[in-house]
Amino acid sequence: MHGPDAGRVRGQRRKYWSKLIAEQEASGQKARPFCRERGIPEYSFYKWRRRLRQSDTVEFALLETASATVAVPDCALELMLRNGERLRIANGVDAATLRLVLDAVRS
């Protein structure tokens, strides 16, 4: 597909597969039965999972420490997103929930 709608369609596909893959990971179910129950071609599932993992680039930045009056006590980790917003991750958050949040932020 070419033209002005191509980017929008690609974005929609990417969002669809990101959501589906996050759902599978959060469920704890193996990929094969997950795909079979939903009528998803297993090949497509693995292809998109690989594609999304390869495209997730991680950038690091120098962190500055803040004084205790500014720090959030219940926050174990704080991520500064590209748009300037902050994502605070509390102690004890489970991996599946964190993965869903990070997938949503990336899309």
Structure description:
With 107 residues, this protein is mostly helical. The protein has one domain. The protein is built from four helices and two strands. It has helices at 4-27, 31-38, 42-55, 95-106, and strands at residues 75-80, 86-90. The chain has a two-stranded antiparallel sheet with strand order 1-2. Strand 1 (75-80) and strand 2 (86-90) form a beta hairpin. The longest helix is centred in the first third of the chain and has 24 residues, at 4-27. It is flat, with a radius of gyration of 17 Å. The mean pLDDT is 78.
Q: Taking all residues together, what is the mean pLDDT?
A: 78
Taking pLDDT < 50 over at least 5 consecutive residues as the criterion, the unreliable ranges are none
Helix content: 40-55%
Q: What structural class do the secondary elements suggest? A: mainly alpha
Order of helices and strands: HHHEEH
Can you give me a brief rundown of this structure?
The protein is mainly alpha-helical. Helices cover 54% and strands 10% of the residues.
